[in-house]
């Protein structure tokens, strides 16, 4: 496949426009909420013990989070492509970041304070104080769960877990659940580090899972479908597939009609009355 073929594929099938739209959405969601529109400065009391938890460094820092969210899925997709000997295009990884970023960034404007808010103020670090106003929802939880939800659903489809049981069924199930377990660890670490309340983390998990599932099923069929491991076709490819499906259905119907006609003729030959009242097959000694 030449560079020109790849370019035509992206344009004709619509992936180029999807990626441009996703990039524009991410840019808008990163600039407007937080930069142009500031989070609400909520009322609080200096004696509020729920805001006086000690400051704790993140168990999963931002760099590690980005590696888990973007690099780990890319590695999984590449390994599956090598095993399946297929260079399938994982377009659902493009759909979920703008959705999750949008939900998370705009909801952050509510300005909920982190459990360590009062301690952070004593650090005299403006950047830390700004971050401490973004407790709800948890960004780590949202980003991890959108990414790992896509990976888990992708593995379910590629491993044919739900429509083709095998002797390694439980092992496949463990592999499928592992990304979600990793996301859960990252989410729980935010509570342990006094970065978020449990409700903040739960909200981030729900946002991430919803966006990840929506992005996956926007690009892949049902997990119970025999073709669950193959992306939905678009543009000319979708039209060709639909035409092939209609042709196959017409051929099947024609074959069925021919079989029905042959059966009718056979039954007519067996049971049609002869002049003496005996069936044709009976006349032949059948």
From TrEMBL:
GO terms for molecular function: phosphatidate phosphatase activity. It holds the Pfam family PAP2. Keywords: Membrane, Transmembrane, Transmembrane helix. The chain crosses the membrane at residues 63-83, 140-157, 169-189, 201-224. Residues 84-216 form the Phosphatidic acid phosphatase type 2/haloperoxidase domain. One of its GO terms (cellular component) is membrane. The keyword Cytoplasm does not apply. SMART domains: acidPPc. The keyword Transmembrane helix applies. GO terms for biological process: phospholipid dephosphorylation; phospholipid metabolic process. Belongs to the PA-phosphatase related phosphoesterase family. This is Phosphatidic acid phosphatase type 2/haloperoxidase domain-containing protein. It comes from Gonium pectorale.
């Amino acid at each position: 496949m030449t560079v020109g073929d790849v370019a035509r594929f992206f344009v004709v099938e619509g992936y180029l426009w999807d990626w441009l739209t996703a990039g524009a959405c991410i840019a808008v969601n990163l600039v407007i909420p937080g930069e142009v529109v500031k989070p609400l400065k909520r009322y609080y009391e200096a004696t509020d013990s729920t805001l006086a938890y000690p400051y704790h460094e993140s168990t999963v820092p931002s760099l590690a989070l980005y590696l888990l969210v973007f690099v780990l899925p890319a590695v999984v997709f590449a390994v599956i492509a090598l095993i399946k000997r297929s260079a399938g295009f994982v377009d659902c990884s493009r759909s979920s970041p703008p959705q999750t970023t949008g939900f998370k960034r705009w909801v952050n404007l509510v300005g909920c304070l982190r459990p360590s808010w009062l301690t952070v103020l004593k650090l005299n670090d403006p950047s830390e104080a700004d971050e401490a106003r973004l407790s709800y929802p948890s960004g780590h939880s949202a980003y991890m769960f959108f990414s790992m939800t896509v990976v888990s659903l992708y593995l379910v489809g590629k491993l044919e877990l739900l429509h083709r049981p095998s002797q390694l069924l439980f092992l496949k199930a463990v592999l499928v659940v592992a990304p979600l377990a990793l996301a859960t660890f990252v989410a729980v670490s935010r509570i342990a580090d006094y970065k978020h309340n449990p409700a903040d983390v739960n909200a981030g998990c729900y946002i991430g899972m919803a966006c990840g599932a929506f992005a996956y099923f926007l690009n892949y069929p049902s997990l119970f479908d025999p073709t669950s491991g193959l992306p939905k076709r678009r543009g000319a490819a979708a039209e060709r597939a639909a035409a092939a499906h209609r042709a196959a259905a017409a051929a099947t119907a024609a074959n069925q009609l021919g079989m029905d006609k042959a059966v009718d003729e056979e039954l007519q030959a067996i049971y049609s009355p002869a002049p003496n009242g005996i069936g044709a097959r009976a006349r032949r000694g059948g």
